[in-house]
Amino acid sequence: MRRLALVIILLSTMLLAGCANILIAENTVLSIENDAQPKTAHVETLKTEQPGRVCALSYDHAAILSIGHVNDTYTIDQFDLKTSTLVNVTTSDSRIYDVQAAKLGFFYTKTNVSSSNNIQIVWSSSDRLVERTITDTIDNPEKAIYVYGENRIAYINNSTELVLSDSNGIKNRYALNGLNLEVSKIVWFPVQNLGFLIAQEPDSNTYQLYRIELKDEGVMINTIAKNVLDMDIDDTESKLVYAIQEDNNTKVYVIEGGDLSSSSRLFSTDTMGKLSFNFNAQEIYFTKPLEDGVRATIWMYDIDQNESIQLSSPMRLNSGIFAPSDKNEVYFSENQLNYVSNSELTQPFSYITKLVYGRET
Amino acid sequence: MKQLRYESRIMLSNIVIFIITMLAILFFSLQSIWYLSVNSLKEDMLQTVTNLTLYVQERTAKLQSEEEKTKYLINNSAGIYTVSSTFSEFQIELFDLSGNVLENGNVESEPLSMSAEFEEVSKEKKPIVSVQDYNGEREMWMMAPITSQNSQPVGYIGLIASLKYIETIQWQVLMVLSLSIIGGLILLSFATSFFSNSFVKPIRKLTRISSDINKGDYDRKILYKKDDEIGELAEVYNEMTQNINKVIIQLRGERERLGSVLASLNDGLLTLNQDGEVTTSNRLIRTYFDLVEPKTIDDLDSHPFFKEIFESLKTGKTSVSEEVEVAGRILLITGSPIKVQATEENYLFIIRNVTTARTLEKEQRKFISSISHELRTPLTTIIGYTDMLNRRKVDDPELLSKSLNTINREGHRLVRLVDDLLNANSVKDMAFSIHKERVDLEELLNIVVEQMRTKSLEKEIEIVFKAEPNLPQVYGDYDRLSQTFINIIHNAIKFSSRGGIIDVVLTKEDEENVSVSIRDYGTGIDPAKKDFIFSAFYRVEEDRARNEGEGGAGLGLYLVKQIVDKHDGKIRVDSEVEEGTNITVILPFITEEDE
């Protein structure tokens, strides 16, 4: 009993001592290692005549496609990475949502002029001489599209069917087994004859990753993951990377090989916005939004080194991250405020931006 | 301090353990909150440093020299400060390479010099952090270099964060946990009080059953069905009581057997330990010495021979015997030492009643003496007469006749004597058999009376026989019954005066028996000696009988008694001195049921 009494007194003393914090030294200066030492980097803003939101790389990765919006006019512009020139590809009075490059041209989605509630998919040749609406009048495709092969496109129509079409509008339609999906992103693996969607069902408030496979016996749809943030397919169309939010953690998985049915985890981070493979799928670029929801930092994950590196300070990103080549540079667009110390704030512009980063040797 | 009961100890232990556990949880919770929060804050600060460093690097990438970059920082400190303020909520100060404050954003107060931190960071070239009290509030300070692409510092950033909110959280947690502890204590007290009974109940049951077992009820079993520690204890306990029961039954059996052995002993048995305490005694000790449960040798003080023998044995003698007479008995006391467990010496006393043996020896001596005399007397007479006839020629025919008659008579007397001896001997032998058959007593007695008339007429004694008519027959040995009545009538003749009468009466005694009474009117028997007339070798007025030439070995009535006993009958003697003797033999007759 005496020993117990002593223990109680001891513990009480510890408690009553004002909860003196014993784990962290006070009034002592300590140096700490900062593992997140930034690598050599510089950011170059590519000021363009037509500021636009970067959407995709060209088929040959020599240019980037952006969607511009000035007053009520939407443009699709192509910025040549070598010559740093911006060329207008198409103009539209109705809103353009997304553009994806094909070998002989590009596909883009825009508001249907006949019905403003519907979306149209348009194919335009590279020389801009031919422009063709490939969706039928009754069609209402999702805004997200994916171009594969040389001149083919995959998209979800009416939220209920998968459509594989060519630039002439010759389509194969596949019902989604009664599913009604609002798709935010789609990719297609033509060799395996399967694709992945980030989509949600109408009453749901979370996005899930669906795997759709076309088999002889029909369309096989599986839910792979929940709370999906983003995904990307590599240039060889053999790998998929995706990120999910789990509790207060973001986990990044890769699906590769065989029938693309099994996932393996690559890494985790606290938060994530968008992600994308680099040109050879050895690095993954991702963004980390700040709490203000406006800015995000750009990071790079090296698969071989299994390390994440911060590449940029917080930026007002409004696009994904695109890495067209083997150089240590990425392209994106950001909303910029012109800071002139005593001038008024002007309308924010969206500029195509290039970030060049170095690696420690 | 009075020992607490088990139930109270359980309660108290639970409460103490609960308090200690909750205090420990509280302590570690508070410490963890502080540690995790401070570390999280530190990570956020580091992120801010990284963001700002990258920001500066992005904008100075194209500048050639470090000096240009440093100047850029100085010249654009306001803009850089504004941007960095958007990165975090910390209070920020920008410093140049000399530690001078470039921007702090707080126009109301002097900027913090953070001189100690600056000294450390400029030396280490790494971020440094400290937790300290500033103006009564706990704050976390971080100072880090802003580096160029070449990892060279171009300036420094200082970040200050208040830790007040962490302390607030700690206090809130403290309040909540304290209230939880109090609530938990109350709940625990009730719950423990409620449930401790179920823990103590099996123990109480064990106690009750143990008490019953202690009182001798070894058949009690503890019924506890749960397979836990108490169940194991109950199982072992039951096995133990079972074994104890077996041992006790065994011991009881042994004790009873020993008691039976001791009780069945024909000798008295007494054992004493070295201190003279009685450890064992049997009933014959009480019978012989009129003692009730003697405890020590002192209780035997009225019989000093015990102490004498005891003292002798203690001196080392291996056996001491003494014959004593106590209350009319002759007892042979033999004492010897016995070893208990090879070391402890106890003493055994065997007390043998040798009265009968001594009496028998005495009777045997008397019998031998009597037989010798009886044998010598006729032999002397026979030898005397034959010597005389041998030595001289006897012409006198009267003398010759008398001599021959005497020799003949004495010879017959010898024969009778030998017959009596043989009969008496055979009675003790199992060979003295009784062959029972239906016997008509009237017919038998008629023959016996007729046979004895010859003898009785020698003394002019008349034998009158009367028999009740139609009496039932008896089961008996014809010859032995004849012998019985012959012996009795013979005695009656012997002790009747000349010219007397002997009445022999056969009648029904009662619903089951007939009686034969033989009455003489002779000398009678002294009442004091009446009980001895059926003893072997006992002779009444033996000298007188001898003088009358009718001396016997004293076996006649002894034989009568044995024969009547073997016929399940009784014999009754009524006698008055000088009035005569009436001997009645009662025998059971054959009933219809026996048929």
Q: N-to-C terminal Cα separation of chain B, in Å?
A: 92 Å
What assembly state would you assign to the polypeptide chains in this entry?
heterodimer
Spatial shape of chain B: rod-shaped
Largest sheet of chain A: 4 strands, antiparallel
Q: Shape of chain A, please?
A: globular
Q: Which sequence of strands runs across the widest sheet of chain A?
A: 3-4-5-6
Low-confidence stretches of chain A: 339-347
- How far apart the termini of chain A lie comes to 65 Å
**Rg of chain A, Cα atoms, Å:** 25 Å
Q: How many beta-strand elements of chain A?
A: 28
Helix content of chain A: under 10%
What strand order characterises the main sheet of chain B? Answer: 2-1-5-4-3
Radius of gyration of chain B: 64 Å
User: On the 0-100 scale, what is the average pLDDT of chain A?
Assistant: 83
Please state the structural category of chain A.
mainly beta
Along the chain, the helix and strand elements of chain A come as HEEEEEEEEEEEEEEEEEEEEEEEEEEEE
Top keywords for this entry?
heterodimer, A: 361 residues, mainly beta, four-stranded antiparallel sheet, 28 strands, 4% helix, B: 595 residues, alpha+beta, five-stranded antiparallel sheet, 14 helices, 17 strands, rod-shaped
Characterise this structure.
The complex is a heterodimer of chains A (about 350) and B (about 600). With about 350 residues, chain A is mostly beta strands. Chain A has one helix and 28 strands. In chain A, the strands form seven sheets. Chain A has a four-stranded antiparallel sheet with strand order 3-4-5-6, with no helix packed on it. A four-stranded antiparallel sheet of chain A has the order 7-8-9-10, with no helix packed on it. Chain A has a four-stranded antiparallel sheet with strand order 11-12-13-14, with no helix packed on it. The radius of gyration of chain A is 25 Å and the shape is globular. Chain A starts with a helix and ends with a strand. In chain A, about 40% of the residues are buried. Residues about 340-345 of chain A have low confidence and may be disordered. With about 600 residues, chain B is an alpha+beta fold. Chain B has helices at about 5-60, 65-75, 75-85, 115-125, 165-215, 230-265, 285-290, 305-315, 355-390, 395-430, 440-455, 480-495, 540-545, 555-565; strands spanning about 90-95, 100-105, 130-135, 135-145, 155-160, 270, 280, 320-325, 330-340, 345-355, 435-440, 460-465, 475, 500-510, 515-520, 570-575, 580-590. A five-stranded antiparallel sheet of chain B has the order 2-1-5-4-3, sandwiched between helices. A five-stranded antiparallel sheet of chain B has the order 7-6-10-9-8, with helices on both faces. Chain B contains 14 helices and 17 strands. β1 (about 30) of chain A pairs antiparallel with β3 (about 130-135) of chain B, so a sheet runs across the interface.
